[in-house]
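Good morning,

Both structures are done.
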Amino acid sequence: MKFQHVPASRGALWVRQGLAAFATRPLAFSGLLGLSLFASFAIAFVPVLGPFLLLGMFPLLSLGFMIATRMTLAGQVPLPTVFIAPLRVDRARRRAQLWLYAGYALAAFLIWLLTYTIAGSRILELQQLLYSAGTTPEMIDARLSDGSLQLGMLVLFVLSSVLSVVWWHAPGLVHWGGMSASKSLFFSLVACWRNRGAFVIYLLVWFGVVLAAVILVSLVSTLLGQVEVGKVLMLPLWLVVMSAFYASLFFTFADSFELPSTDTGSPPP
């Protein structure tokens, strides 16, 4: 599989393509996301191994949605079997995928362990404070002024970003390119770096989409004078945005590499 260099403006196109792919099969993509969330909750309760299995499923989740998007472009309806398709391959590719999942889980666990060593339980306390009904901006500001918490959050953000970049294309490179786990990680890092301008725009546009969704919900709840309405609307809107985001992952991969014998044209607007 050959590298492909794209201009920075391509990042905005990836977002539009993801939204268009979601609009083509909204129920299918929403259902896949709902199923993955349900599976995440179920796996989290598995004794001892649950947290590791939960961390390791993120690369499988992203690849499953990439397969779903490719099926949508081909005029097919993506089914939940997209999440087991990466394991229904030859032995070499299945072993490479399992190594990727295990490596991701271990790396994510080590990042969290380092963060906890620096910040202790302060990050968890901050999360509880954000979801508490009686929280005031002054209370959040006081918590954020903690130097250990700031350093821990910085370490978590930087290392998590590096982890995402290294693993971004890796599952797809194993699935469609037949690469080994180590080779796929290297080429994923190189591809993200070569197209870093497009990825920066891609993430900024998605941030704008999320911000616009939050503002829209806030405006509706304010006009209606009902805060509870905003809470009710936020969940389905979040599902739509997240589903569209996962639907866009395939386009970041298809533009970064020359896929073998595939049509990666855009879905209808």
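Second structure follows.
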Amino acid sequence: MGHPVAMAAPDPNADPVIAVPPDPNPHPWENGQVPAEAPWSAFHQEVPEPVNTPAPDENVPLGQGEDLDTQLVDPDLGVIRVRNPLEDPELGILRIRDLPNLPTRPAPPKVGFLSARFSVVNSDNVLLLVNDVGSLTGDTFYRPAASLSVYPSLGPQTALIGSVDVGLQRYGREATLNYDDWQVRLALRQGLSPRSYVQIGVAYQELLQAGASRLSFFDNRSVALTLGRRDPFTSKLTLDSFYRVQWNDAQARFQTSNGVVATDVSRLSQTAGTYLGYTLSPQWHVGLNYQINLNDYTQQDRYDTVQQLLGQAVYSITPQVRLSLYGGLSFGRSSDPRLSFDDTLFGLTIDATVPLF
């Protein structure tokens, strides 16, 4: 169904559970799962000290100031007393002070984000199949995509995560493979410690053939349980790791001369991965990730093992816009001899995120 597009790595200095703004883009090794950062922030604002205007000088000698009145001498009228505007005849000297600066409420953290991205990827094996002459099919594909994500906080270490994603997959030479897809996800994430979390989520995904037919040729309903952890070795070097077990209730459909034929491709998947990230500067981040997937198909005599090693460099053009360059290889084996997971992949992605609410 095409290769998963690798996305930019998260801020390596962010806490994976508490108190950082979100990076709505997923880890490359999470293959489109929700990013590891919790999307809320514990804001702290210093309350300014009151700023007061000094009172009139209380040390003016009374013989000169005459209780702060100004004395003027006129040769005909004598002494003219001009009353100080800060003096009230009944209350005496009025001392006027500026009102203190009252503390202001910090703006609530953003919980809704709109993201757009465009990827160009070259792959040696877009079909994951060995063709009739025993070779693989390579191609370049282009993928514009957008997502709307929300991350409301339900507690100090609890977040609800929801997203809707849409994308278009277009191939350079193999145009018959073109498809559109959309996915909706909902998950609950609970912090276990300052460095680890557990997450349970559900998702629905559908792939449709591009063009007039609009055949829905694949749909997948899934339930997943994920355990994740972040270990910072230094302020710039961080290791992320996760383990996920996922049940997929999936069907694939094929158009034949006798009509549409459906095949049950339900499976139990186990995935483990690590991501070692290093921040070179505020604009540059590099990383290396490894992932292994074990897929046990329940309605077929099929078992797959797939591994992927991927390196990437991320440049932050602005805080909201990033450019990612990545490349690597995948390999594995399947009980189905027609399948091949050997692949070399290179690509780039530019993505932009706008906070909405």
